[in-house]
């Protein structure tokens, strides 16, 4: 009887232990990291999107990004031309602090940058965080080793090494073919915009099968001149917009064709079940090209200029379940701020000192801190008689903006709150403000002087 009692007691105690174990909190599985898609267009005007009410253009998919996410009305490109902004995006640093103050071109006599091999790149950091990384489209940060995409952190590269294309169908620059599939030279048929779209769709479909997060940097050449929309897109615009100037019709059709490509990429995310776990960034590398009749809204000037029209760019971000749809941010951000923001989204952080700062709190609907003392620095080096191999500059601090639009023009000072169109140069009226901003500018120039911007001489 005693043995029976002890056996029953042991069974009861064992059951109690098992029961209590089942009540203990179980370890939670970490949520999957979001995919990251950065869509960068080339020379798209600040108001060359229909979500700003521009009447002669239809961009339903860019509009969709603004509607389903957050629109940024004060987003600045780091530079009013291509290569420097791309360097800032991929390093989180001011472009001349990583050796790219100007455009990298085919011929050394007219090339004004060399990407610092010591700079840590966004794809490298995201790979460490578990991401597969891909660049489809325009690179424009080096034409040869060691500054090719797959040597600077991208697992996959399919696109264009160089700067502009002389023709979107032939895809050549100075009669050189810069189209690559990783390191292999390729010569695919078709319009470059369509190719970049199709390759992105295929990449998204492939990554859906892996379960591993991806970072896709989709950098279109369009709508950079030469403006070459497919004929059916141009005809559609001309029929819809009677009286539209021919040049403007061509640019509108070019952007609408680009927008359609973006729509196909978004559709691929949705069809593959990845849209809800993807952060999408849409922006441009600089302001619109005025000779092509780009629309930069009320902002002064356009591409190549340090005035607002050369620097402000259309920007929107979508992250389902994280970014509240239909929100508008007035926060001032630069292209280089995407670097730390995307790293934070991926659960990583920069391992080098950078000038960019994360604006993830803004995306998540948290109050944005006031930053009246954050100086924003812009520079561009260029050749030719207008620039002479020297730099143009701008520096913004709060509402004040100091501008030296070409190396041979005098400094100008504007108050953007009182004069958003930059019509009134008040430098003589505010000498102390000028001195303050000029001191900040000189400090940035001195810091950049520590980094060479030309390819090292071969010994």
Q: How do the strands and helices of this protein lay out in sequence?
A:
Blueprint: H1 2-23, E1 35-41, H2 60-68, E2 70-72, E3 75-76, H3 82-91, H4 122-128, E4 132-138, E5 156-160, E6 179-181, E7 184-185, H5 192-207, E8 214-219, H6 231-240, H7 246-271, E9 278-284, H8 308-311, E10 315-318, E11 327-329, E12 333-334, H9 338-345, H10 360-363, E13 376-381, H11 384-387, E14 391-397, E15 400-404, E16 412-415, H12 431-448
Q: Quick one: how many beta strands?
A: 16
Strand content: 15-25%
Q: Under the CATH scheme, which architecture of the largest domain would be assigned?
A: 3-Layer(aba) Sandwich
Mean pLDDT: 94
Low-confidence stretches: 15-22
Shape: globular
Question: Roughly what percent helix?
Answer: 25-40%
SS element count, helices: 12
- Give the N-terminus to C-terminus distance in angstroms: 96 Å
Structure classification: alpha/beta
Q: How many domain units? A: 2
Radius of gyration: 25 Å
């Amino acid at each position: 009887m005693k043995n029976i009692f002890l056996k029953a007691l042991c069974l009861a105690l064992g059951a109690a232990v098992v029961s209590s174990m089942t009540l203990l909190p179980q370890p939670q599985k970490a949520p999957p990291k979001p995919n990251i898609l950065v869509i960068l267009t080339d020379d798209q005007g600040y108001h060359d999107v229909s979500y700003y009410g521009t009447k002669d253009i239809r961009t339903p998919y860019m509009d969709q990004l603004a509607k389903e996410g957050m629109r940024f009305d004060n987003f600045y490109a780091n530079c009013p031309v291509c290569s420097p902004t791309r360097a800032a995006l991929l390093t989180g640093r001011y472009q001349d602090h990583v050796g790219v103050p100007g455009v990298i071109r085919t011929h050394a006599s007219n090339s004004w940058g060399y990407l610092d091999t010591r700079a840590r790149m966004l794809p490298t950091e995201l790979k460490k965080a578990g991401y597969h990384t891909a660049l489809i489209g325009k690179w424009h940060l080096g034409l040869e080793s060691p500054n090719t995409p797959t040597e600077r952190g991208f697992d996959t590269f399919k696109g264009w090494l160089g700067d502009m294309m002389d023709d979107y169908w032939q895809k050549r620059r100075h009669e050189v073919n810069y189209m690559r599939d990783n390191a292999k030279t390729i010569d695919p048929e078709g319009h470059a915009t369509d190719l970049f779209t199709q390759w992105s769709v295929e990449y998204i479909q492939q990554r859906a099968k892996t379960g591993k997060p991806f970072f896709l940097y989709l950098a279109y050449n369009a709508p950079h001149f030469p403006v070459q929309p497919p004929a059916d897109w141009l005809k559609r615009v001309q029929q819809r917009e009677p009286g539209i100037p021919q040049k403007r019709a061509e640019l509108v059709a070019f952007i609408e064709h680009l927008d359609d490509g973006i729509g196909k990429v978004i559709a691929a995310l949705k069809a593959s079940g990845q849209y809800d776990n993807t952060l999408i960034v849409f922006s441009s590398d600089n302001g619109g090209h005025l000779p092509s009749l780009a629309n930069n809204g009320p902002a002064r000037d356009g591409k190549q200029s340090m005035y607002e029209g050369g620097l402000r760019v259309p920007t929107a971000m979508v992250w389902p379940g994280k970014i509240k749809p239909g929100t508008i941010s007035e926060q001032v951000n630069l292209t280089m701020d995407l670097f730390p923001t995307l790293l934070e989204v991926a659960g990583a952080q920069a391992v080098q000192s950078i000038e960019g700062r994360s604006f993830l709190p803004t995306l998540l609907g948290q109050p944005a801190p006031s930053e009246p003392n954050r100086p924003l620095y812009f520079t561009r080096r260029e050749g030719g008689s207008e620039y002479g191999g020297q730099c143009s500059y701008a520096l913004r601090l709060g509402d004040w903006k100091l501008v030296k639009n070409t190396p041979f023009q005098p400094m100008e000072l504007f108050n953007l709150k009182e004069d958003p169109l930059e019509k009134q140069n008040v430098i003589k009226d505010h000498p102390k403000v000028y001195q303050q901003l000029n001191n900040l500018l000189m400090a940035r120039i001195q810091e950049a002087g520590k980094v060479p911007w030309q390819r090292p001489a071969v010994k």
